[in-house]
């Protein structure tokens, strides 16, 4: 079965860079149509889509955060890494890793989620 | 990109039907079939309930249905049950080849 797990620091100082790792199993990020991405949710607030990387290496970013985000994949070890630079307390949120699959024209968007990791930005 | 507009809250009695709207623009909801809905219970990760406007993933109750008209998508929950009390979010593909979520709706079962 498909599982995703986020890992990274729980507390980060303002202005620093956050590095989050998604380790997944049950699928390959080399399979056509598959992508892995990141979504965050500040406490008590709505979901916000951040970025994704496709099976072919193509990447997409939230236009509002584009200059601060970077996503990479290492297919050999089933990991996707997200970095968020120049952190601000407003970046405090639960960060989720998600799987999607385009299958014969159907897009199963964010069909599997990690349990999420709460990151607090504070000095 | 601006968040899709959803009502902050919707409520209904057990057994009733409720509908949650998700209003976007011709740059997202209005132009693509890639509209999805998610259910989130407190302290849990969201769960995919509807994809491609109206399709249900395996295991999702047929009490949940989706539709779209113009720039507005809708999620209908029929035969409302206590377990349906949760937050619901829509999402859509956009002209920028990115994704955007809705503002979220809290469903209360009276």
What can you tell me about this protein's structure?
- The complex is a heterodimer of chains A (123) and B (110).
- Chain A is an all-beta fold.
- Chain A has strands at residues 3-7, 11-12, 18-25, 34-41, 48-54, 59-61, 69-74, 79-84, 93-103, 106-113, 117-121.
- Chain A is built from no helices and eleven strands.
- In chain A, the strands form two sheets. In chain A, strands 2, 4, 5, 6, 9, 10 and 11 form a seven-stranded mixed β-sheet that branches. A four-stranded antiparallel β-sheet of chain A has the order 1-3-8-7, with no helix packed on it.
- In chain A, a hairpin with a 4-residue loop joins strand 5 (48-54) and strand 6.
- Chains A and B meet through strand 5 and strand 10 of A and strand 7 and strand 8 of B.
Per-chain topology:
The complex is a heterodimer of chains A (123) and B (110).
Chain A: E1 3-7, E2 11-12, E3 18-25, E4 34-41, E5 48-54, E6 59-61, E7 69-74, E8 79-84, E9 93-103, E10 106-113, E11 117-121
Parallel strand pairs in A: 2-11
Antiparallel strand pairs in A: 1-3, 3-8, 4-5, 4-9, 5-6, 7-8, 9-10, 9-11
Chain B: E1 9-12, E2 18-23, E3 35-40, E4 47-50, E5 64-69, E6 72-77, E7 86-93, E8 99-101, E9 105-109
Parallel strand pairs in B: 1-9
Antiparallel strand pairs in B: 2-6, 3-4, 3-7, 5-6, 7-8, 7-9
Number of beta strands of chain A: 11
Mass-distribution shape of chain B: globular
Order of helices and strands of chain B: EEEEEEEEE
On the 0 to 100 scale, the average pLDDT of chain A is 97
Measured between the Cα atoms of the first and last residue of chain B, the distance is 35 Å
Number of strands of chain B: 9
Instruction: Give start-end ranges of low-pLDDT stretches of chain A.
Output: none
Helices of chain B, by number, come to 0
Secondary-structure content class of chain B = mainly beta
Estimated share of beta-strand residues of chain A: over 45%
Radius of gyration of chain B: 13 Å
Sequence stretches where pLDDT stays below 50 over 5 or more residues of chain B: none
Overall morphology of chain A? globular
Please tell me the overall pLDDT of chain B. 97
**Portion in helices of chain A:** under 10%
Give the terminus-to-terminus CA distance of chain A: 39 Å
Radius of gyration of chain A: 14 Å
Order of helices and strands of chain A: EEEEEEEEEEE
**Most strands sheet of chain B:** 6 strands, mixed
Strand-pairing-aware structural class of chain A: mainly beta
**Assembly type of the shown chains?**
heterodimer
């Amino acid at each position: 079965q498909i599982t995703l797990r986020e890992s990274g620091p729980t507390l980060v100082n303002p202005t620093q860079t956050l590095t989050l790792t998604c380790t997944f199993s049950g699928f390959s990020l080399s399979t056509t149509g598959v992508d892995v991405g990141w979504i965050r949710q500040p406490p008590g607030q709505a979901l916000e889509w951040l970025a994704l990387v496709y099976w072919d290496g193509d990447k997409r970013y939230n236009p509002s955060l584009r200059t601060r985000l970077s996503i990479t994949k290492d297919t050999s070890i089933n990991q996707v890494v997200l970095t968020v630079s120049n952190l601000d307390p407003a970046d405090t949120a639960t960060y989720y890793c998600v799987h999607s699959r385009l299958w014969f024209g159907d897009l199963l968007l964010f069909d599997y989620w990690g349990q999420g990791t709460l990151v607090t930005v504070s000095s | 990109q601006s968040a899709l507009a959803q009502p902050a809250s919707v409520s209904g009695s057990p057994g009733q039907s409720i509908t949650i709207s998700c209003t976007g623009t011709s740059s997202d909801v209005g132009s693509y079939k890639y509209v999805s809905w998610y259910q989130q219970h407190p302290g849990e990760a969201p769960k995919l309930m509807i994809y491609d406007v109206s399709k249900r993933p395996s295991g999702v109750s047929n009490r949940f249905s989706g539709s779209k008209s113009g720039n507005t998508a809708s999620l209908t929950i029929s035969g409302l049950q206590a377990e349906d009390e949760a937050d619901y979010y829509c999402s859509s593909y956009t002209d920028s080849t990115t994704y955007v979520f809705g503002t979220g709706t809290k469903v209360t079962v009276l």
